[in-house]
Hints:
Layout: H1 3-16, H2 18-55, E1 60-65, H3 75-78, H4 88-93, E2 100-115, E3 118-127, H5 131-134, E4 139-142, E5 156-159, H6 161-168, E6 177-180, E7 183-191, E8 196-197, E9 200-201, E10 205-209, H7 210-217, E11 224-229, H8 235-249, E12 256-260, H9 261-304, H10 306-314, H11 319-355, H12 365-381, H13 384-391, H14 395-400
Parallel strand pairs: 3-10, 5-7
Antiparallel strand pairs: 1-11, 1-12, 2-3, 2-6, 2-11, 4-7, 5-10, 6-7, 8-9
Helix pairs in contact: 1-11, 2-9, 2-11, 2-12, 9-12, 9-13, 11-12, 11-13
Amino acid sequence: MSWRDSVVFAWQALRGAPGRSLLTLLAMAIGVAAVVVLTALSDGARRYVVAQFQSIGANLLIVFPGRAETAGGTLGMLMGETPRDLTVDDALALLRSRSIKRMAPFNIGAVQIDWRGRSRDVTLIGSSAALLDIRRMKLTQGRFLPAGDPRNAVFVAVIGSKLRTELFGAQNPVGEWLRVGDRRFRVVGVLAPQGVSLGSNTDESVIVPVASAQMLFNSASLFRVLVEARSRADIPRAKQDVLSILRARHDGEEDVTVVTQDALVATFDRILHALTLAVGGIAGISLAVAGVLIMNVMLISVAQRRQEIGLLRALGAPGATVRRLFLVEATVLSVAAAVAGLLLGELGSLAITTAYPVLPATPPPWAVVAALATAVITGAAFSVVPARRAAALDPVVALARR
């Protein structure tokens, strides 16, 4: 019997028991679909996080107050101390480095804003004119924060696009006075829609000069300092310059942490890639369960088709041919289930992407190949025992038994 005849025979056998074949196919298809959808979600989350970091600017370094230790915290905090404050003067001193192109002091907090009786709580960001270029922001109206000494408090504000719609409607907000906390700020610009970036939604934020934000927060310290190196090759040198400049200003203590954008991206990429592998492996267990189901179904099939097997043996079919028939039958069923599962998984991924456009839920190619290969190999491997049992049947006993 040729391989083509074996495939035709297997297909006829599957069509002869449609209910059993359909349930087995469904079990395997669900396993493949689970692998595809879950890996699409995990890999989509990884790409989303990486894109968020890359969207905040190129060649970026972030300076944190406090020295990060291997234990995951800061040594001073473990001893009940607070890290030394980062100040605007510290941030300005960083510009002495030839490897640094620009820097932006950064403060963030929550305040209440009000305009003609309309009020809401918003995120207040205090920074400088350089933030526009460092964070790759764009304006739809007006201008950004004025350039100049960031130590001078200027009561102007740039608002997000969603705040502009909610507070001002169709009216032009540029030039209007907005109460922020207990002070009044003149709106000078409106940001283009940008969405959430690193947990901060600029569409619902108000950006003011850092000195003005410090007055509102009643604090002279900075939350972070964003530093942009002149090029990717200058990042290591810029990091060393930041540490040395601040060490000199802080009495010889290296009490800040400098994290590069590449390091952040690489860390999150490794974590989420490992999560994708773990989730795919967990989903892959369902394929093993489906393989056990195929084995049980094939064993039942052997018991129900004893006379058919006996007739094949009586007509001269060797045991190897009988084994091949059952292996081909299981393989055909597995391939059909794998293709059906892939289609289900792709539809599920498309539904997730449609519902959440910001999440690129597309299964990675390796996950698709692994799911299909595992399904086919599992189906074939778990059919070996039933195939051997069928091949071992005595033709006389198989034909005589009812």
